[in-house]
Amino acid sequence: QVQLEESGGGLVQPGGSLRLSCAASGSTSDIDTMAWFRQAPGEQREWVATVTSEHNKLYADSVKDRFFISRDNAKNMVYLQMNNLKPEDTAVYYCRVRSRQGYDYWGQGTQVTVSS
After folding, report:
1. Whole-angstrom distance, CA of residue 74 vs CA of residue 5
2. 74 Cβ partners below 8 Å, 6+ apart?
3. CA 5 to CA 99: how far, in whole Å?
């Protein structure tokens, strides 16, 4: 299986930026796609962005042109660069990887709070 460890969350003012990181360990050779999700209080978990093994990138409309996902296969890392942050971006952000066999693995989540 794959274990995921996230970092980079915190408190930031509107218009600011944060960079989230997720380090994968374990059976990393099995990793196919890597993605980020988020969940605000009282809301369902929402898909944010995905990067495929071919480095193709997809984004939710709410973050398109502000957030950027990337991966470094040599380091077994996935990143989420978040720019021009808005209060509505406040949520717990989760890293998720999908194996080539179709299994999903989740990180523990990291809090992002956007407030003045």
Report:
1. 16
2. none
3. 17
What is the SS3 string spanning the chain? CEEEEEECCEEECCCCCEEEEEEEEECHHHEEEEEEEEECCCCCCEEEEEECCCCCEEECCCCCCCEEEEEECCCCEEEEEECCCCHHHCEEEEEEEEECCCCEEECCCEEEEECC
Answer for the pair 109, 40: CB distance below 8 angstroms, yes or no. Answer: no
For the stretch 72-116, pLDDT in tens is 999 999 999 999 999 999 999 999 999 999 999 999 999 999 999
Q: What band does 9 get if pLDDT is binned at 50, 70 and 90?
A: very high
| Strand ordering across the sheet containing 67-72 | 2-7, 18-26, 77-82, 67-72
Spatial separation of the C-alpha atoms in residues 70 and 21, rounded to whole Å: 10
CA 11 from centroid of its chain's CA atoms: 17
